[in-house]
Amino acid sequence: MALLAGLAVPATTATARAAQGAPTPTVEEQRLDKAVPQEILRRSGFDSVAPDFVRDLARTHSFKQARGIVVRDGTALWRRAVGRAQGRGPAGGDLGRDDDRPLYWARLGMTRDVRRWEPGFGLSDAQRSTLLEELERTSRGQSDIRYPSRATGIKRILVTGFDPFTLDRDIRISNPSGAVALALDGTVIQTDSGPARIEAVTFPVRWQDFAEGTVERTLAPYLPKVDLYTTVSQGRVGRFDVERTNGAWRGGYPDNDNISSTGTIPVAAPATQPQWTTTTLPYKAMVTARTGRFPGYDHTEVTEIPTGSTEPVVRPDGPTPGSTAREGGGGNYLSNEIAYRATLLRDRLGLHDTLPGGHVHTPVLQFGAGNTDPATGKITDPQFVQNRLDIIAQLRSILRVAADSALK
């Protein structure tokens, strides 16, 4: 299942649970002690992250000091994951450097420790919530976006990725969009209009975080300053898709905390909320260029309720005037939602005609033949690694084509 499915009645998130003073780990955190996450951490060297973090916290004597440690160690985790993915420093084990999973599981170890930490100086529910928010933000690269000055002439590209998901179906899962973010963050590509620096961030697969505005808070300071952006997620088997249209609907598929949500995507100023937003990426160039082994598609299909009707209809060529969204090109899960939120933010900032931006779906990252059963399979295999490396390389090439076409 790709990041194409559903969301609705906001339920309690990790942050909200902390604010309520509940000591119970989140559903995501409860998976952490299973054999697969522990093997991933051990074979990447990231098994030391949470224990080191706990020791750092134990040396603090105030909330201010604790917050400083959270910011420092969260930022260090992101930079360590990026450095590992890009070949800097020790690999820490035999797990492929391109793997996004160590970052995901190490972060959960840290959030679980913050949730159950009881310092001697006392920690209010609001303070614990703040620590969790800072840890999420810093360990996802959201506070680490650095572009060179405009005077250098270097173009600016922003890319987003996601955590692994559908972990109850197969806890071994990796998300190629997260691997793309780690591989490309801070790198420079050469385009027809000169060098372009890519900065990348990741987002959780949780409905409530999106309802609370994590996408808008992260992207709003940067969209007016970049030359091109694309949100990225895992999509369909064997293909890249540039999604033409995004819909304002959550379809209810459970997130990483096994919470569902169905209804109109909750945004600020809902009275001015459109049912549909569209890409401004140069999609024709992106899907026709030879960028790698996977074919690319200009994906135009949506599901709508036409004006005057009550039943959803699939439209292969996009929505009809006045219709109500039920699925964008990227479905009605968090892929579609991040695409919708980012393009709506682009339009509300008055950038529709000047900023190329939209959503790209990568192929599903598949394990090799003979390693497809999660009950008996290994956490990695040569074909799995090669598939991920090929997706990363092709997404880099797709960005280069987009920049060549759009940044004249």
From TrEMBL:
Residues in the signal sequence: 1-18
Record bears the keyword tRNA processing: no
Keyword Hydrolase part of the UniProt annotation: yes
InterPro entries referenced in this protein's UniProt entry, alphabetically: Peptidase_C15-like, Peptidase_C15-like_sf
Region entry Disordered, spans: 295-332
Keywords: Hydrolase, Protease, Signal, Thiol protease
Pfam families: Peptidase_C15 (PF01470)
Protein family per UniProt: Belongs to the peptidase C15 family.
Name by which UniProt lists this protein: Pyroglutamyl peptidase
Organism of derivation: Streptomyces yunnanensis
